[in-house]
Amino acid sequence: MSEKNKAQNSIPASKVQRASRFMQTGVKVGANYVKHYAKKLVDPNTDREELHQDNARDIYDALSELKGSALKVAQMMSMDKNMLPTAYSDKFRMAQYSAPPLSYPLVVKTFRKHFDKSPTDIFDSFTTEAVNAASIGQVHKAEKDGKTLAVKVQYPGVAESVSADLKMVKPFAVKIAGLNEKEVDLYMEEVESMLLDETRYDLELKRSISLTQACAHIPNIRFPKYYPEYSSTKILTMDWLEGTHLDKFLQTNPSQEIRNKVGQALWDFYDFQIHELREVHADPHPGNFIMGADGVLGIIDFGCVKVLPEDFYQQYFVLMDPTLREDRQKMLETFYTLRFIHPDDSDEDKQLLEDTFKQMIQLLGRPFHKDSFDFGQDEYFEEIFAFGEKSSRIKPLKEAKKPRGVKHGLYLNRTYFGLYSILNQLKANICTKSAYFSEKA
Predict the structure, then answer these.
(1) Strand ranges across the sheet with 297-299
(2) Which of 142, 188, 414, 438 fits 123 for a cystine, CB–CB 3.0-4.6 Å?
(3) Rounded to whole angstroms, how far apart are CA atoms 170 and 173?
(4) Residue 285 has pLDDT above 90, yes or no
């Protein structure tokens, strides 16, 4: 195990300990700014890249030590290439695969608390080092009765620290990502609720079994079997899925046929969940997908599941209807219902916001408007990033005194962004006929 991923023997658990670690990081970030401005006095052409790299390192080091919700937020932010400077997104992306793991004695302690046994009392073999470590828990490989298993163990104190951590991480999110503070307040409530659900491995077990059974008919997808007898509120045991994550899969230079096969399975999986089940695996980062050389897609981690209220679902997907642009009244009603525009906005702001959100839905809805779509078109994603950059400077969005949007949109938007991003990396050309439009036909 590399030095940078050296196992931790403890995690700051109390509010005082965690607040102290955040404060230390704040001091370091402040010192980085002082250093940057001192250099800028000497050389006015000094850019902010070194500042971003120093801050990204110091913040990630703190978050990876604290783990839990703070590190999860960093992971979420790293998925949006428009949200953070490159230095941050590159560093925070490590939370998807390779956060520093917890030491084995703490893993044993968790097992004894929940099963009154050590891992080796339960399994025929159990790796003392984690094979994967992320924000909320880490995975160990085990053997039992000839079966190879993945055993996910939650970090101590994660559930208890969610609320306090989010309050402390908020200033970093506002400062670094340039987010609107009012919108952060709205969305932090949704993030807190979802993160608390993620810390309940008993709920994840229930959802994993339910959703994998419901999606079992989708072609070219495989799911692990789950084992309630070896699971608890903080431990979750499932089959080990062989294969590779996206980065290593792409290094094998798979054929376009295989790329399309994986991409189609991914699209079909999400389309079915959203439009038939009204609940969705809302954590589509590459660490949760395991690709086989044959193009069959393994899907894990149903801890983050967003249930879509019916009224929100109907309003949201009206925006994907290409005929909406021909019905301005209906479009405006939807914008008001989803709180993209507020009644007390000035007439000038209303027009600017109408134009902006109209452009947004036409751009992001483009794959839905065709029978097939080539996600390998880099120019399409460059268009999306350019739009994001432009909209971030629009005054009624940047300086809004009220949040834009509704909380239910946060995780659904995140899901589609993650889906589009993976399909782009696959360069997948797939059928994008959606069950939503089949229902409307």
Answers:
(1) 221-222, 297-299, 289-291
(2) 142
(3) 5
(4) no
